[in-house]
Each structure stands twice: as C-alpha cells, then as structure tokens.
Design goal:
Blueprint lengths: L2 H14 L10 E4 L5 E5 L3 E2 L9 H11 L3 E3 L17 H6 L4 E11 L2 E10 H7 L3 E5 L2 E5 L3 E9 L4 H17 L8 E7 L9 E7 L6 E6 L3 E6 L5 E6 L6 E6 L5 E5 L5 E6 L5 E6 L6 E6 L5 E3 L7 E6 L5 E6 L6 E6 L5 E3 L6 E7 L5 E8 L2 E8 L5 E3 L4 E8 L5 E8 L2 E8 L5 E4 L5 E7 L4
Parallel strand pairs: 2-4, 2-5, 3-5
Antiparallel strand pairs: 1-32, 5-6, 6-9, 7-8, 10-11, 10-33, 11-12, 13-14, 14-15, 15-16, 17-18, 18-19, 19-20, 21-22, 22-23, 23-24, 25-26, 26-27, 27-28, 29-30, 30-31, 31-32
Helix pairs in contact: 2-5
Length: about 450
C-alpha cells in the first residue's frame, strides 16, 4: 500500500469511528528471558524540533512484543550515540546487543518531520571497527557492511505511530528474514455492561497492540465470528440483531454492509477463501449443521459435508484446496480435513479428549487449534505432516485462536480473573502476553492480513 492510500485509509477509519479509545493494552507475562537483546537508542532530536510522540518507544515495545527481541532499557545502554561513527561496538557487544537502531528527528515545517535511521550489526561492527576496505572498479573503497540498512522519510505528526510500526516491520525483517506484522490490525467483539450501554455488543477494529480502537458496529444482540477478507478491506461476521443468526459482510472503511445469508437455523462461522471470492460457512437450513462454500458474487452454495454429526468451524488451507473443520462424527469434537476437489475427508487430530477451532499457519505446515486434555482447554499446534502436537498455553478456557499473517503469534480468547480477555502466545510457545480490557468481555479475535 503506498503512502497516499495509507493516509487515506487512516483518515477514513478516523471519520467512520463513532468513538475512538484504547480499551486493550499488552502486558507481557512470559518469554522476555528467551529473547535476543537489541538496542533501540532514544532518537536524537534536533534543536527546535518538537516531535508529537516518541517513535523509539513504540519500536522498542513492538520488537519486545514480538517475543524474539528484548529492547534494552535506557539504563542498560552503554552509550547514546547519534550516528554509527559514535558507536563503540565492543561496549554494545558486552551489553549483549546484536543490533542497534539509531534515529534522528528534525522538524522541517510546522507539521513536517524528517526521520533518519541506521540499523547497525554489532558483531560485524566489532570485527571491522565499522571501517573496512575493499576493491571496487579497481579502487579501494570503504566497506560499511556493518550498516544493515539506512532510511530517511519526511512524515507528518499524525503519522508518527504508523511509521514507528513500519520501522519495527523493517527491523524485524532485517534481523529475522521474516516479514513483520506490526502494521496489522485485529478485529474482536466486546460485550459491555447492558445496564450502561444501550447496545452492549460492539464489533471493534484496532491496531494489533490495541491502539486506535474503532467501533464498526453496535448492537443490542450478539455479534460473533468476525473474519477478514484477504485484502484487509472487509469483515464477515454473524449478527443476531434481527433475533436470528445472519451472516453479514461489511466494508471497514465505508461502513457499507451486505446480508449474505438468512437461512432457517444456524448461519455461522464465515471465513473468506484465500482468493477472497468464496466464503466457507456453517448452515443448518436442511436440519443438520453442515459446511458449505458460497461463491460471493453469485451467492451460489455448494454443500461440502453430509453427516449426521455437527460439522462446524471451517478454515481454509493456504492454497484454497482444502478445508479443515470441527466435527463430532467420531463421538467427540475432532478436526477433519476435506479435499474440495474430491470430497475425500479424513480425521487429522487424535491427541487429547477433543480438538476444535483449527486453522492453518500461513505456510501450511502446521495447524493451530484448541485442545482439551483432562478437562483443560488450551491452544496447541500440530504438524500437518508429522501429526506431532505441542500445547502452547497454560491459560484457562482458551478459544478462538487466530494467527498473525506472518505466523509468528497467535491471538486467542481466554478467561482471566472471571472475565473474557485476549491473550497472545508465540508459535513456539515461549512468549506470552495478555491484553486486559478496562470494561466488558472481549472475545472472537481475528488477526488481519498484511495491510
């Protein structure tokens, strides 16, 4: 998405929001000790410059929340350099940092700021001293290969937080080889106190860290199961606002919405196909809950499952050729996989009392699900080929796992101190965080694609 589109979409979001307030905050509960130290040096600010907010603090928080890095606190930094020429690499290596980010902010107009950045490789800098010579076109030139990347942007004050997330994405990808997901958003449902809220059920979209919360829909009846379109512009969800479950599709930026299903019985669990042209869903219009696929343009339905048991919670494989779904056809809920071309269906989970709510990782090599073992509902992952399962969480009554588009983190709903809250766990299970809410119950999280 180019800069103009990004600014336009941000503006439209702000315009559409009836109310904007941060309800969620991230509290890291486990995993910092396993992360790699990194130095995010407080950005140098030129004389006369008054930045509206701190970029380096947002970048440090982003990278720490990734579970893969631990941003050194200011009192742990050996120095506060303004450029790579001032960096003592031995000191930073002794502090344990493998990389250092240095930034400079200079005000250029009333609401225009130039941001200059350098990402430095501490180990390479320690070996070369930041200066090595190499031959280029027959001449000796200085090789500054300790500088992993350099950037410079001119941005407005309102763009500080957005660019901080963009910087986090770049740093994360440079250091891991994996695309960052700090510019993504999450959708979720909040149920507020009906005694104080006329329409207590609210469909929310917020930045991945809970900031810039926007209420897309208020209802006096339940809202459920939001799911993003692959282009990040639409949500599908289930609404009971007409006293029965119906599936709606809503444009996030214009607010326009369309009712997609109004069949008798269950209309539930909608999810977009990877190409955005189809929806998998659960319908019981003929008596039993079965999996269907709808062509969105024609509204034509194709029935995928036919079984006396309850089939629900469909999720697409990344290539769009398979669905996994939860079914009680074996007596207790387990996850099954159906080939959409042949209809061949097979059970894929066997460990524990039950498994449900499965979803593929973006690379299709693993599934994430809710596993119940000895009465405890936890988030687990299972290799698609190996079948090996690993339980990732220790929280209580976990449900509704949704993966970040880079597959690094899982957001899910859980019970904490008697309230439904959202939590995060890394795909390796080492990093854990909780997103408590100031009021109400939070559930049905859905992580956006890359935006």
């Amino acid at each position: 998405m180019n800069k103009i589109n990004t600014i336009l979409l941000t503006f439209l979001l702000l315009c559409f929001s009836l109310e904007s307030r941060a309800t969620l905050e991230i509290y890291i509960t486990e995993g910092v000790n396993n992360a790699r130290p990194i130095g995010i040096v407080p950005f140098h600010v030129s004389a006369g410059t008054q930045p509206p907010s701190s970029i380096d603090e947002v970048v440090a928080a982003d990278l720490t929340r990734s579970g893969k890095f631990f941003a050194l606190s200011r009192d742990k930094m050996p120095q506060l350099p303004k450029s790579d020429s001032e960096v003592d690499y031995s000191e930073w290596a002794a502090a344990g940092a493998e990389a250092v980010l240095i930034g400079h902010i200079q005000q250029q107009a009333a609401d225009e700021f130039k941001i200059t950045l350098q990402l430095l490789d501490v180990i390479r800098g320690q070996i070369t001293g930041g200066q090595t010579q190499m031959m280029s076109n027959g001449q000796m030139v200085t090789n500054r290969d300790h500088i992993l990347d350099e950037w410079s942007w001119v941005i407005r004050g309102e763009e500080f937080r957005q660019y901080a997330h963009r910087i986090s994405d770049i740093v994360y990808e440079k250091l891991t080889g994996e695309k960052g997901a700090f510019l993504t958003q999450i959708a979720y449902v909040i149920v507020r106190d009906s005694a104080t809220e006329a329409k207590p059920f609210q469909l929310i979209v917020a930045d991945y860290d809970g900031q810039n919360e926007n209420i897309l829909l208020r209802s006096n009846e339940p809202l459920m199961s939001p799911s993003w379109s692959p282009d990040g512009r639409k949500l599908v969800y289930v609404s009971f606002e007409n006293k029965k479950p119906q599936i709606f599709m809503q444009d996030i930026y214009t607010g326009s919405r369309t009712m997609l299903t109004d069949f008798p019985g269950i209309n539930g669990a909608p999810t977009f196909s990877p190409d955005g042209n189809q929806l998998a869903m659960v319908l019981s219009k003929d008596g039993n809950p079965e999996i269907y696929v709808m062509d969105i343009a024609s509204k034509r339905l194709r029935q995928i499952t036919r079984n006396r048991a309850i089939d629900t919670e469909p999720s697409w494989s990344p290539d769009g050729k398979h669905l996994i779904f939860s079914s009680e056809r074996g007596g207790k809920p387990q996850i099954y996989r159906v080939n959409l071309a042949t209809g061949k269906t097979r059970r894929v989970t066997f460990e524990g009392d039950m498994n449900l709510g499965g979803t593929f990782t973006p690379d299709g090599t693993q599934m994430v699900m809710v596993n119940r073992t000895r009465g405890n509902y936890h988030i687990a992952k299972q290799g698609v080929d190996s079948g090996d399962m690993l339980v990732l969480t220790k929280t209580f009554l976990d449900e509704s796992p949704s993966l970040a588009p880079n597959g690094s983190m899982i957001i899910y709903s859980t019970l904490h101190e008697g309230r439904q809250v959202l939590s995060l766990v890394s795909l390796d299970g080492r990093f854990k965080a909780r997103l408590p809410v100031s009021e109400g119950q939070v559930k049905s999280p859905s992580w956006s694609p890359f935006l």
